[in-house]
Design brief:
three-stranded mixed sheet; CBS-domain; alpha/beta
Length: 137
């Protein structure tokens, strides 16, 4: 199965000037763990995750004053819709993250989460280990 078949095509998008509280509310309402950040002046889409928000709260920063732009996940990784789920899972394990922005021809077309991968493998009845060629390392 490929990323394009397993990804969520509906993506929560926010701007870099959203407050962390505003993004947390949107993520909570949509029951998602990440939002894609679109910045017209940026080099590509960014991503903010529940972990990024949690890290800010742990530092006792004010979620009403802290802006998304200052808390983006470093070194966002992008997947192509034609990647295999094994390739995507390996990238997630290597990078230690749970979401991939799916980009095609420079446009965000979806987001793939660990939950999506597990759902796909469960629906497929996958019971075999990830092939060594896709394993992180």
């Amino acid at each position: 199965m490929q990323v394009g078949e397993g990804m969520s095509p509906t993506v929560l998008t926010v701007g870099p000037d959203h407050s962390l509280r505003a993004v947390a509310r949107l993520m909570s309402r949509r029951a998602v763990g990440a939002a894609v950040v679109l910045d017209p002046e940026g080099q590509g889409p960014g991503i903010i995750t529940e972990r990024d928000i949690l890290a800010s709260l742990a530092e006792e920063q004010d979620p009403d004053r802290e802006l998304v732009a200052h808390h983006l996940t470093k070194d966002a990784v992008y997947a192509a819709p034609d990647w295999s789920l094994e390739e995507a899972a390996a990238a997630m394990v290597r990078g230690g993250f749970r979401h991939l922005i799916v980009v095609e021809r420079g446009e965000t077309v979806g987001i793939l989460s660990v939950r999506d991968v597990v759902r796909c493998w469960t629906e497929d009845g996958a019971i075999c280990p990830v092939p060594a060629s896709a394993a992180a390392g």
